[in-house]
Specification:
The protein contains 12 helices and 7 strands. The chain is of the alpha/beta class. The protein starts with 20 loop residues before the first strand and ends in a 5-residue tail after the last helix.
Length: 314
Amino acid sequence: MAEKIRPELLNFLTPGDLPIKILVVESCGYLTELCRMFPAVELYAVTADPDMQEKPEFQGVPVEWMILDYREMPIPLRRESLDYIIGDLTLEHVGNPQDIAAGFSTFLKQTGAWLTSFRNIRHWSVLKNLMEGHYYNVVSRLYARQEFERLMYACFYKDVRVASQRRPGDADFIHKLEKAGFDNVQGDLDVEFWLVRAARSMPEMALLKSMYAAKDRRALSRILHRIEYGIDTEGQCDELWNLYSSVLMFPDYIAAFAKQSVFHHRQFYERLIAHSSGHIGVVRAILEAALGESEKEEERTMLLELMDSCGGEE
């Protein structure tokens, strides 16, 4: 019989004092530890078991309970309101995994992530049962790692990371599988469960999105793109500097945001320099910040040329 998954999803998290919001889906064993890790946490729990909230271990745990089957009923939470959703094997017993995964993503903030796990269909125990004529997962969905990762990316997650839980098989049996043609890249046949952290944004963009309000980020993105493509360039540069001063942005932030959102960097910076009289000192600081983060020689050369073109004007 397969071992039960060990509750290790919290290894993806770093304890802290920030007032974050977390939804736990059925895996209620995480609730007490989450309160210890995050003293200011706002906790929600979804479970189909009406008796769960009455269990002794949850008395005194500050959690808002929602008694419903997440596979069949909508979860009554606001869009983009959660920092994390946590639940083991969440997609194993669902008929519509893409709908569930995509639905969860709508509850996460742009900086949020879903922590879940899945049983590896390529684990030696599953293959051994099949070879013996048994399949005990008729009402379950099992996944291979690549299949699950593709599902996450199709459901609007931008950064997917995995960790393994292993239950090694007999060396002779593993060799037999390999000889029969089963790939065993990085010991995949010994991985019984994969643990997953699926984030709404890439790490670089998640950091940028955490610093300013969504409306200010949207305005900045629109302005940078209009400057890049020469649409009302002078007016858009004026808007950029008004936004820059009104929400107290800084050169490193503009440089990092431009690196992630602008495609034609030389074109963008040339237009910014040409229409930013009175702000050339800040433009030079933005270019210096971009240079400090540049890894390609071609890009460094371009940025140095742009810095020279700024001249001595402040």
